[in-house]
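Bumping with the actual sequence this time:
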Amino acid sequence: MSGELATLADLGAAGEVLPAVGGAGDGAGIPAAPQVRLSKRQKAAIIVRLLLAENIELNLSSLPEELQEGLTVEMASMRFVDRATLRAVIEEFVAEIEDIGLAFPAGLEGALELLGGSISAATAARIRRQGGVRITGDPWETIAGLDPARLLPVLEEESTEVCAVLLSKLKVSKAAQLLGMLPGKRARQITYAMSLTGAISPEVVEKIGRSIAEQLDAQPATAFSEGPVERVGAILNFSPASTREEVLEGLEQEDATFAREVRKAIFTFANIPRRIDPRDIPKITRGLDQAQLITALAAATGPLEEAAEFILSAMSKRMADQLREEMENLGKVKPAEGEAAMNAVVSAIRELEAAGEILLIAEDEE
């Protein structure tokens, strides 16, 4: 509706009185109305009222604030418009719309929004910086749609007060996920700061959101969607246990800090008791093939037996007893088959986590 909004803006831009409308009749039984002298703003108010009456959604927020205010005041002062006057205003509005061949968005930000994905994010960010353009609209909508990995640096680098506002504006599931990605001490500091945000004004919250959105928008595009820790962790997650330990031992010799971060990023069958809420076990097992689950549980011996018992104890007694019986009937499981089945369980957990249906419990750090 860019053309229609442009015409509305033009109609509402001035308050001078224009030539009268109405008074001619239409030759179809509609009596002539008295000559009515309407201002441009009054005509714009009539058009807006008509569109709203037809349940047409209007986004007038892109109009200058003085025009939005003027239209609102004008609508508040008007009462009734006869059919002949309404028809004349509509015909004039339609005629102006038809005279517009093509409408371009107002301003640099409007042009960037129109181009959308036609230009790279890096180019758009550079144009904004060079032109001093601020992101329009609600910045928190933009922030809420971002991947947690992009928001994590903000929580690591910004003040605890800013981080507290950020978490307060996100959905509970995403805020919890981000909090779980932080070291324990930092997470506690931010959660305490959230208790002090009650008196923050909406203007300050909006300013913080705009600052964060512009900061994130200015970040250069990267070749990979995830960091090196996540990429290495994801690969080792599904590697054979012997390969995984050998690689991690080698990493610890080369870069102990990187190796430690990779270990935290890895989630294996053995991590289930420490990282999974028992209440999520039914949701996890419901999506698994029964034969795969039985194979994984039967293969979980030695150090992995704790994980198998954790899963069984989170089920109903009847279901757990049934699975134990089938595990006994299955007998000894080949190592390769057992590892494949346990990887299937881990994969199901990862998929549920990515979908936001479950949250992994963060291992506390000091």
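The tokens above came from a reply further down the thread. The CA atoms of residues 30 and 83 lie 8 Å apart.
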